[in-house]
Design goal:
Largest interface: A-B, 22 and 25 residues
Structural class of chain B: alpha/beta
Helix content of chain A: 25-40%
Radius of gyration of chain A: 19 Å
Largest sheet of chain A: 5 strands, antiparallel
Shape of chain A: elongated
Shape of chain B: globular
Helix content of chain B: 25-40%
Strand content of chain B: 15-25%
Number of strands of chain B: 20
Radius of gyration of chain B: 25 Å
Distance between the termini of chain A: 32 Å
Number of helices of chain A: 4
Order of helices and strands of chain A: EHEEHEEHEEHEE
Structural class of chain A: alpha+beta
Oligomer: heterodimer
Number of strands of chain A: 9
Strand order of the largest sheet of chain B: 3-2-4-5-7-6
Distance between the termini of chain B: 55 Å
Strand content of chain A: 35-45%
Number of helices of chain B: 25
């Protein structure tokens, strides 16, 4: 009866009807039942069938994770919930836009770090750069950590999107 | 009536009425207002739907719940925008917690005013999202027929529940095409699992055949599934010879007069039920949800048992208690499959195997945990309910309750042999549920004896519905167990808060006899045990609504009781037990 109390991180793909209120139903479920949302992204992915895909990164004990999936499946416009880690290997990506204004002394070092991380310069002025960086959440965190002392002033991140490896669906 | 053409153009308001009729609706509980005037106009022009004008929207939803739970049909509510919708919220939450199929139509300001803080505007879909199974805002009249039919499907199938359809006034005036129910395609994303997996049925049969100390634990899912589920459940229980217990929501799913029935389980359940639950080696949960009022302290819940859990809602499984075998499906389908499997395995009941278990149960039963100190001078609440039960035998009796001590005594002492005859607010615990619910029950069963066993505090929460009851000449009987206290609050204050009865005494109660008469009903009062029988007989004999004010012992507590935070084998059996079990833990005190 005593389930292991270890908290695990899970990435889920939730396929929903793209209709008003559907995101509120999902978010309301998480807040109402006290579940964590580490990140959540949503966009229409199948315009023909009006389906959107929500990618949720959440954490909880195995019992809580099981509950989250069952509760999500109960929402009427939800077509399916896929726990990507449990269904096999998957890829996750996040995009960040990072604005750095480090002054003349740091400009060369800023570009060097960006180059190491394969971040692209998408905007520049004599005082600033905006970098576009794509990768796993960890890689983005590492990039931002290195850039911070060089004068990061603003960060915008998308949250995680994920897809399974191989030819399987989801 | 002449056959209607397949598809027809009509106004949104007419579509609403048409859809209700096509869904087989006979009664609508409602209250008019600006935003729903077009529907009331369409209602005026027809005579197939009966509208019951309630006095408060909360009453409308509880009435629809009583109607639904006693008939197996969907209850329908019609209220206006803003306050009409917000007043319905308690009823909707109640229906969600107890899985009662209700469709609630709410008016809304015209679409172009939505978001403008218009007069009587409320974000109804926003407010009701967490307290409905699903809800809709209809912005295009051509979606209306589909939404109406889908709302009924969602409300009545799977785990039933309340569905709100929010109807802006301009949509009700607009013309569009009506679709009959059969032309609406099933929604792809909504597929409740009704049939169980065969492998799990086989596994369940194996566990049943091996059990030495088995216990059936039946819940409201049996009632929701319908008469077939209750019949199959009774067949299975009798075939095995196993003991069974029922939850508050499951009463009537198995005949309470049968020896195999151990009584109610949970916080105020019988000694034998709770001890059997604690000591069993196999628990077979059919349509119950391991509610905290049943489990008590989860860490000490049935520690030596394997558990089978049958539920139509996947999310009920492993939510509170981890089980060994989960069977997702409708109770009737699961029970039919399980019976077939046991017969295929040539299963024969083995009384010898479970004889020691029954012997143990009989020793618990001998404690007679529902006993109470009788009195010749003051009416004990238990006595009043026992007499009410005894004097209504041989009649078709439906009982509703409010919430509190009287509810628990009714659940303990009124024995239900059939499903659909017991309506109570189990999950939400809504004071004020019983009177409007009784009204709904009486409408579904015009010739039956419908009794609201009430407390004097609860009854005042929706007393305005007496006016509705009198308007429609519904002969509902209100049996008030009047102890002048919010009895359950007082009981907890006595047990947990040093007897400091903070705000639990009602100092200025109305004269219930005069109150009844003011509404146009009959009022009666009884103060002596010797008069109880006579007054109950008089109440039954009157073919009008009656309020009976029963003056009972104000200090009586409801036993047995599992104190919060305690295990099933740590019950208090009566007032004399208070010291013996020691003080209630701090951990237990913070629980509700």
């Amino acid at each position: 009866m005593t389930a292991p109390e270890t908290v695990e991180k899970h990435t889920m793909a939730v396929l929903v009807d793209n209709e008003p209120g559907v995101l509120a139903r999902v978010i309301g479920l998480f807040s109402g039942r006290g579940y964590n949302i580490e990140s959540l992204t949503v966009a229409e992915t199948d315009p023909e069938n009006k389906l959107s895909r929500i990618t949720i990164v959440t954490s909880g004990t195995p019992m809580v994770i099981e509950q989250i999936k069952a509760q999500l499946n109960r929402i009427v416009p939800v077509h399916g919930v896929h726990d990507l880690g449990e269904e096999g290997a998957f890829i996750e990506r996040e995009l960040a836009l990072v604005k750095v204004t480090g002054g003349a002394d740091n400009r060369a070092e800023t570009l060097r770090v960006a180059d190491i991380f394969h971040a692209r310069v998408v905007d520049t002025t004599p005082e600033s750069y905006v970098f576009e960086m794509t990768g796993s959440t960890d890689k983005l965190n590492a990039f931002i950590n290195l850039m911070t002392p060089l004068g990061v002033v603003d960060i915008s991140r998308t949250g995680v999107v994920a897809i399974s490896r191989g030819s399987g669906k989801f | 009536m002449a056959a209607q053409p397949e598809v027809r153009e009509m106004s949104g308001a007419e579509m609403v009425i048409r859809a209700l009729i096509d869904q087989g609706v006979e009664v609508v509980f409602g209250y008019p207002g600006g935003a729903v005037l077009p529907i009331y106009d369409a209602l005026f022009k027809q005579n197939r739907l009966r509208h019951i004008l309630v006095r408060h929207e909360q009453g409308a939803v509880h009435a629809a719940e009583g109607y639904a739970r006693s008939s197996g049909k969907v209850g329908v509510v019609l209220v206006t925008s803003g306050p009409g919708a917000t007043n319905a919220v308690t009823g909707l939450t109640d229906a969600l917690m107890d899985s009662v199929p209700v469709v609630c139509l709410t008016g809304q300001v015209p679409t172009h005013l939505i978001g403008n803080d218009a007069f009587q505007e409320a974000d109804t879909t926003g407010i009701t999202r967490p307290c409905t199974k699903h809800n809709y805002l209809v912005k295009d009249v051509n979606d209306l027929a589909r939404v109406m039919h889908e709302a009924f499907t969602v409300a009545r199938t799977g785990r039933p529940g309340p569905v709100v359809v929010d109807l802006p006034k301009d949509v009700l005036f607009a013309n569009g095409l009506y679709l009959p129910p059969e032309s609406v395609p099933a929604r792809k994303s909504y597929r409740p699992q009704v049939k169980p997996e065969a492998s799990r049925i086989a596994a369940a049969a194996q566990l049943i055949m091996a059990a030495k100390k088995p216990l059936f634990y039946g819940g409201g899912g049996l009632i929701n599934s319908g008469p077939r589920a209750c019949t199959l459940f009774t067949e299975l229980v009798r075939m095995t010879g196993f003991p069974l217990t029922l939850t508050l929501m499951g009463l009537g799913a198995f005949p309470a007069s049968d020896k195999q029935y151990l009584g109610l389980v949970g916080m105020h359940g019988t000694f034998e039920s709770n001890n059997a639950m604690h000591d069993c080696d196999l628990m077979i949960n059919i349509g119950a949800r391991f509610d905290d009022r049943v489990t008590g302290k989860v860490a000490a819940f049935a520690p030596h048992s394997r558990k089978i859990h049958v539920d139509i809602d996947r999310s009920s499984i492993n939510k509170n208690v981890r089980v060994d075998l989960a069977v997702v499906g409708d109770c009737a389908e699961v029970l039919a499959a399980l019976l077939a499997e046991l017969k295929a395995q040539k299963y024969k009941a083995d009384p010898a195997r479970i004889a020691p278990w029954w012997k143990q149960i009989e020793t618990w039963r001998k404690r007679d945990s529902l006993r109470y100190a009788k009195s010749d001078t003051i009416i004990k609440p238990q006595y009043a309910i026992e007499r009410l039960y005894a004097l209504t035998r041989g009649r078709d009796v439906f009982v509703t309750t409010e919430v509190g001590q009287h509810q628990m005594w009714a659940a303990q002492l009124f024995k239900f042999d059939q499903p659909f005859h017991w309506m109570t607010s189990g999950g939400l615990g809504t004071m004020g549920y019983g009177l409007p619910a009784a009204m709904g029950v009486q409408l579904a069963h015009p010739d039956a004896l419908v009794i609201d066993i009430a407390g004097e505090a609860s009854i005042l929460m929706n007393i305005q519905e007496m006016s509705t009851i009198c308007q429609y000449r519904l002969p509902v009987k209100v049996f008030i167990i009047n102890n002048q206290y919010m009895g359950m609050v007082r009981q907890w204050q006595e047990l947990l808060h040093g007897g400091r009865y903070s705000e639990s005494y009602t100092a200025a109660l109305p004269d219930f006899v005069k109150l009844a008469e003011a509404f146009g009903a009959v009022g009666m009062r009884v103060e002596k045990p010797a008069d109880v029988d006579r007054v109950i007989k008089e109440m039954i004999a009157v073919d009008r609504p009656v309020i009976v004010d029963v003056a009972v012992d104000p200090t009586e507590n409801c036993f047995p009781m599992i104190p919060s935070g305690a295990a099933h084998n740590e019950m208090l059996l009566g007032p004399e037990d208070k010291q013996a079990s020691g003080p209630i833990s701090e951990e237990g005190m913070v629980l509700v």
